[in-house]
Design goal:
Leucine-rich Repeat Variant, 23 helices, mainly alpha, globular, 2 strands
């Protein structure tokens, strides 16, 4: 056999093991997606469950609205998969539910609503969440199955922070009565989740309407809970809402406990509300030997906007060796300074680079951003991606359309987290 024939024989032998050539390409992914949408209405619960699982892994944005019908499905297992699927569509960091390692082990990562909720309000990405999804989650939060209602309630808390503008105001008006009613639920875990979600959803933003008194007073009522965790959740919610009708009750609780976790929770809420009636109490805590209480008092005085108190705050923070207290002093300097560019903004920005102070500094930037967005300009090219990301999140939360001009040029940032923060910020600013 010649060399040429031997090569030809080897080629034919190898070809005999190859699969047949496929038919001309068809948009199979599109066909599967269209079939999945049809299967969502299948009378067979097994088909609906399988479809919800598939859409959870695929995280197609187009499937969000059709999937909403399964959130209130008669079958609990289908509901849970649909809730997980909606979360995976809209959260910033997608979860891969199944991942093979080698050829043997399959790792499974659950899409758990409470765990995602605990990561904070920035867990949700920039995509608009359809109203029917939020409505279905709020309905399922009253489900008979305890697991379903908690997953639905926490998922609602994760996704309901996305709408802004008039859509947000309409959502708060529609959701308030339902969530307030859940504070009176028999199940303590349901009451706790409701308080947490109210605190997240009703956290005060620029241009928000006044808090519905029925909602705020329902949270005040939870201060009388016997379970400390429920009391703490109520305090945190009242502080986030900045509900001034709660101030007297919170001050009474602080005076009663005077120290420990409950006193700290009460003072933190008082400091966030920053009502003028609480100023004497906050001033008294500037002399506290407890760095946590002292820092909260400084924050509270900063939020009052009373510039007369800047000297008191500076005297208390500059002589303190605690870095967190010093950072609180910088926050007060920014909030109480004359003009939008004054204060010690640089110290807050620099603190983002410190892992021990990062979260504190990030939230200070978010609070300081409204009315001060131009003061961020000189920091936007900082080499630290953590700083650039924090600045984008703060500008995105400012509620000022003028901030778009600062955020837009950052869209070409090479860091993935910064680029995602830019996308998230632009989506919020354009609402």
């Amino acid at each position: 056999m010649t060399k040429k024939n031997r090569v030809r024989s080897l080629f034919l032998l190898a070809a005999s093991f190859l699969p047949a050539l496929p038919a001309p390409a068809v948009p199979s992914a599109q066909v599967r997606f269209e079939q999945a949408i049809v299967d969502l209405a299948s009378p067979d619960a097994a088909v609906r469950l399988r479809t919800a699982k598939m859409l959870k892994e695929a995280a197609y944005p187009e499937s969000a609205a059709p999937l909403a019908r399964l959130i209130v499905d008669p079958q609990d297992s289908v509901q849970l998969e649909a809730i997980a699927a909606e979360l995976n569509i809209f959260i910033a960091e997608k979860i891969v539910p199944r991942k093979r390692v080698g050829f043997i082990v399959e790792l499974r990562t659950p899409v758990a609503a409470d765990a995602i909720f605990s990561t904070g309000p920035l867990a949700v990405g920039p995509r608009p969440v359809p109203g029917e999804v939020l409505d279905a989650l709020r309905t399922a939060a009253r489900d008979d199955n305890p697991r379903v209602r908690l997953e639905a309630l926490y998922a609602f808390g994760v996704l309901a922070v996305e709408p802004g503008g008039e859509a947000r105001r309409a959502l708060l008006r529609a959701s308030g009565p339902d969530l307030a009613a859940m504070i009176g639920a028999v199940d303590p875990s349901h009451r706790y989740a409701a308080l947490q979600v109210i605190g997240r959803l009703f956290e005060r933003r620029p241009h928000d309407e006044p808090i519905d008194q029925n909602v705020g007073d329902a949270v005040i009522g939870a201060l009388n809970e016997k379970e400390p965790a429920l009391q703490a959740a109520a305090m945190q919610a009242l502080g986030a809402m900045r509900y001034d009708r709660a101030v007297q009750g919170l001050m009474d609780l602080f005076q009663y406990h005077s120290k420990g976790a409950m006193a700290e929770g009460a003072l933190d809420a008082i400091a966030h509300i920053a009502h003028r009636s609480s100023v004497p109490l906050l001033l008294a805590q500037l002399a506290s030997k407890n760095a946590v209480l002292k820092g909260m008092a400084i924050e509270g005085l900063a939020r009052t906007g009373d510039r007369i108190r800047l000297g008191d705050v500076q005297s208390a923070s500059r002589t303190d060796r605690n870095r967190s207290v010093q950072l609180a002093g910088s926050f007060a300097s920014v909030m109480l300074s004359d003009g939008p560019g004054g204060g010690d903004m640089a110290s807050i920005v620099e603190a983002v680079a410190n892992p021990g102070l990062r979260e504190q500094a990030r939230w200070y930037l978010i609070e300081a951003a409204p009315g001060r967005t131009q003061a961020f300009t000189r920091f936007l090219q900082d080499p630290d991606p953590f700083i650039r990301t924090a600045l984008m999140d703060a500008l995105g939360s400012s509620g000022e359309s003028a901030a778009i001009a600062l955020v837009q040029p950052m869209a070409s940032d090479k860091d993935v987290q910064v680029a995602r923060a830019v996308e998230r910020a632009l989506a919020r600013l354009r609402q």
